[in-house]
């Protein structure tokens, strides 16, 4: 079997002229290094652009988790404050971190006229405790409450208001900035007058 591709190289080799022609030679070392360098640059650029959306998505998820937990906790506290008759001062701790807020509310049952609700920090969570019930965490374990302060504000009317200062942080133990986040919220709610 005769292959025309190898015939010219075979003839030169047999005639003593063993130098391959330009078309028979492979890549030079410089050409090979240039191809490898271009390939490394292309792969690096592709990897960087492939991981950027993943990191951005992680940061968005962390920020959403913080905002959702803080909003839900703050909305619950404001709702309970607005439907309360008065601030229950024996269980309330104002102007310190961590604070506690006790509220006196009109009971919905026919056997009792008043009931009590408390907000406080339990572990890394914000908890709500109703009279006669176990505490319920208002935040999940992916965030931690690092500051909780209540202040009683007395205004010109006889109705007191409560200012809530809340600091929520991501509970992720990673040092990567896309998994870390902090959110500080302050809000004020006025008690309902009866």
TrEMBL record:
It comes from Candidatus Portnoybacteria bacterium CG02_land_8_20_14_3_00_45_8. Keywords: Membrane, Transmembrane, Transmembrane helix. The chain crosses the membrane at residues 32-52. This is Uncharacterized protein.
